[in-house]
Each structure stands twice: as C-alpha cells, then as structure tokens.
Amino acid sequence: MRADIFLVESGRASTRSQAQRLIASGVEWRLGSVAPWKKVAKNGDDIPACAELRLLDAAEARFVSRGGLKLEGVMQRLGLTAQGLQCLDVGQSTGGFTHCLLTSGARCVVGVDVGHDQLHPQLRADDRVVCLEGLNARALTPASLADAWEETLSELVEEQEDNDTQPVAPYAWMRNGGLVDDAYDDSDDAKDHEIEVFKTQRSERNKAQAAGTLPRQRRRKAAFADAVVDPAFGLIAGDVSFISLTLVLPALVPLLAPNGQLLLLVKPQFELQPADIGKGGLVKDEASYGRVEKRLRKACAELGLQVLSWLDSPITGGDGNREFFLHARPMTPAQGAST
User: Fold this and answer.
1) Is the pTM of this model over 0.85?
2) Which residues pair with 312 in a beta bridge?
3) Cα distance between residue 234 and residue 255, in whole Å
4) 24, 7, 25: which is closest to 16 by C-alpha?
5) 293: burial class by Cβ within 10 Å (0-12, 13-18, 19+)?
C-alpha cells in the first residue's frame, strides 16, 4: 500500500496531504519487533499492510490540519489561552483551529464555513463543537448566527394533532350507555356541520401525512434541551480564503463578548490586487506585506478595534506565501475618544 494512503487508513493522518507532510518530517516502518526500521523515502513507497509505523516528528499529527499548528504557535507566543471560553472559528473547514482551541481548553467552539461536509469526523462528533455550514462570514449577524445555531440543535417534526380541540360529538353521552335527564346540558356539543368540517380536515391531514407534505415545526433535540445559544464570543479565531478580512471584520465585531479578542490569520494574497500576485499565487514583492498591514490596521481602527499585535505565522502557507496573525480587541471608551 502507498505510504501516504497507509498513514491515512491507519489513523496516523487525517488526509493524504497531512500524511505527505508527516513523511517529509520522517516516517519509518518495520515488520516485527526485532526487524530493523526502514525509512519511508517518498509518498509512493510500498508499506506492507501489517507493518508497524513510527513517526520521527509527530507535530503534524497533533491536529486534524496544519492550521492547528499555526494557531497554537501564535497563541503560545502571545500567552493566550482559550480556557473556559466560548469561541468562534471563522472558516472552520477541516477544523484545525477548532481542534487547537479545544486543546487550549475552550468550553465550546462554534464554527462557521461557507462550504459543507469539510469538518473532520472526530470534531463533528465532539459535543463541544457546533458546526454551522453554508454561512458566509461576511453576512453574519448575531441574529443569523443564533438562528443557524438553534437549527443545528433542533429537529423538524410534524405538527401534532391537537386532541383538545376536537369537537365533542352530539349525543356523546350515549356511547357508553349513558343516561340523559333534565339536567343534561348539550350546549357544548358540536353541531352536525362542525363534525363534517372536522372529518374533512382529518382526511386532508391524513393525505398530507401520506404524501410527506404535512407542515413541520422545529423542536429542540432532547440532548440539547439545556444548551444556551448566545452569539457572544470570548475569542474569535479565523482562517478565511478568497476574501479580504476588511470585508469580514465588520461582521465579527458585533459577535465579540465584552473583553473579547480577535486572532485572525492574514493571507496577503487575498488582500492584494491581482497585479501584486505572481505565478502560483505567490506575492511578488515583500514590500506588499507592509501595505497589507497598514490597510488592516486602518480597517480595525475604523471599526473601533485596537490592534494588539501583528505577528508572522509560525508556518508559511501551503503555497509558500508568508502569512501573519492579527490580534485585536475592542477599544476602551477612553481609547475610542482619543482617536
């Protein structure tokens, strides 16, 4: 079996891309405890199905994607922790940032992504993770996020028939051999035409139910009966592509809890003009990075955000581009007044 496929199928890597990075970092295999270790030289090397594997550098395998390594590295440098926080992961994708936030102690991570079916199964099965798919970060509002969040905690159920409103048939007292006397009051009994209307409605409902067109209503799943939906986050982390952060930031500010912080990955190739980008999507001129920083600092100031740090990402992008992290938080009233 190909070495990169072997790593995925044995659970050592989440994707073939991750497996290939592990191989580049060093992977060895052997047959039996007394056999010598053999180094995997390339992704296509053949490894027997019963082989034992050893990773020489397991850092790539710590998270479901290398995004987790980027976020972990910058959080360690800043001395940040997600301990006990409700966090938002913007551009959740496979879930590298989400994985890192959970490892850092996040109480809950809500992830939004415009795509579908990308989140790693390990994270999708974690009760601390909420995955909101098909949402454009640029269009987020507290109300739309809360509604999408509520939807994931709920299920659609058919309208239940309300037996309390069924008409009481005339002479219902006769069904069980009842007796009538002068004290019997039939004023609440349904009239014949009301009974006919009810029968028609019952028939239409049965037909709709058989056709699958019966109206449905949203109801909380029992497992989430006590879950609290509150679109206010102590830490918002983000890794978005094919869009400038200047277009995303306005939607994120209203989602910050008091004293909340932003930690966003900056990909300069999506902040610059096409003329600034060369072959393979690489930024042509390093001087462009300064322009990106200046532009994003200005956008933050206009939104009432204080930029606390502008840092190089611990790891370059997959295409070789330099990446950065923007660390910001809302200005205090005094800071806002002085700007």
Assistant:
1) no
2) 324
3) 9
4) 7
5) middle
129-153: b (≥16 Cβ within 10 Å) or e? bbbbbebebeebeeebbeebbeeeb
CA-CA distance, 339 to 331, in Å (whole number)? 10
Residue type, 157: V
Quick check: helix, strand or coil at residue 235? strand
Q: Nearest to residue 133, comparing CAs of 94, 85, 86?
A: 94
Identify the three-state secondary structure at position 206.
helix
Express each pLDDT in 199-225 by its tens digit.
777 777 778 667 766 666 888 888 888
The Cβ of residue 19 has, within 10 Å, a number of other Cβ atoms equal to 26
SS (H, E, C) 75-104: HHHHCCCCCCCEEEEECCCCCHHHHHHHHC
Q: What residues have CB less than 8 Å from 195, skipping those under 6 apart?
A: 167, 169, 170
CA distances to 72, 104, 208 from 79, in Å: 10, 11, 59
> Token digits for 1?
């079996």
Average pLDDT, the chain: 86
Of the CA atoms within 13 Å of residue 235, those in its CB half-sphere come to 25
| CA–centroid distance for 167 within its chain | 48
